[in-house]
User: What shape does this take?
Amino acid sequence: MNLFFDLDGTLLDSKRRLYTLFQDLVSKSTLSVNEYWELKRNKIDHKAILLNKFNYTEIDYINFESKFLEQIESPGYLKLDILFYGVCEMLGILAQKNKIFIITSRQNKENTFVQLKKLDIYKYFENILVTERKYEKVELIRKTQFQNEDFIIGDTDYDILTGKQLGIHTIAVSYGFLNKQKLNEYNPEYIVDNLAEIGIILQ
Assistant: This one.
């Protein structure tokens, strides 16, 4: 069986990275990390936050977004990511009987590879599929030998909809970038609150 894991928000806790860069770019922001993520997990994007809370113009937002995308995967910010508790153990168990893939919307493939090697989880994956802002996740998964019995595991509506489009099983994780209420709107087959529940489903 093939298992397609999203990376940020599913295997890696990237909340500190995104929040830190936001604060670095928005000098007048006094949002706490909890306030910032409460907005994000309710699917309120940066554009809405900046225009509604900080009186940004459309041009201001475009400039912000350009800088954010340019810096968010730089080594200095990537070092803020940490593995969710139990990731290595779960991947080690699942890799014994399954082929495990990363499917991520990141832009920089090289920096992603370097990070995964530093975190010592690169070895668990059959392949690392990176959209590089050129492809859709569906396109990359279709290039693998996927089957209807396979699973995609992620923390966003994009991951759920990708699985549905491919006709594979979907597991949504509620500890990532969207809360359970928002995830439920997209009807994944499973919603889990922790990694242990993923392991139980996939064993």
